Input
Amino acid sequence: MLIKGVALLAGCYILGQLLGETLGKLLHVDANVGGVGFAMILLIFSQNWLEKQGKFNPEMESGIMYWSKMYIPVIVAMSAVQNVRIALSSGVIALLAGVIPVVICISLIPLVSKLAKNNLQ
Output
């Protein structure tokens, strides 16, 4: 069952990379666009689907958790460094495309916090 968890993670990673490469080609960008993000979304959806089907067990989860503790942080860090390099070399528009969403998210933290407190009460 540990192997099945690792296989699920690997399958989601491969599909995510294919989607990222395809999106990059569709956007005429010579890079993988969101491959790791697609992989994580696929993993979340596939894990949720397997849980609903009653086919996801703790052994499978341990296979996913093993690699998530070691592998996913390394991939995310590598892609973050690559994205920063590309953004800095691509000019102001690419830099703004990264900075503006971060500023918006940070500015929405108080609103989300307030909404969460209201829902808890």
User: Anything to note?
Assistant: Residues 92-120 form the longest helix (29 residues).
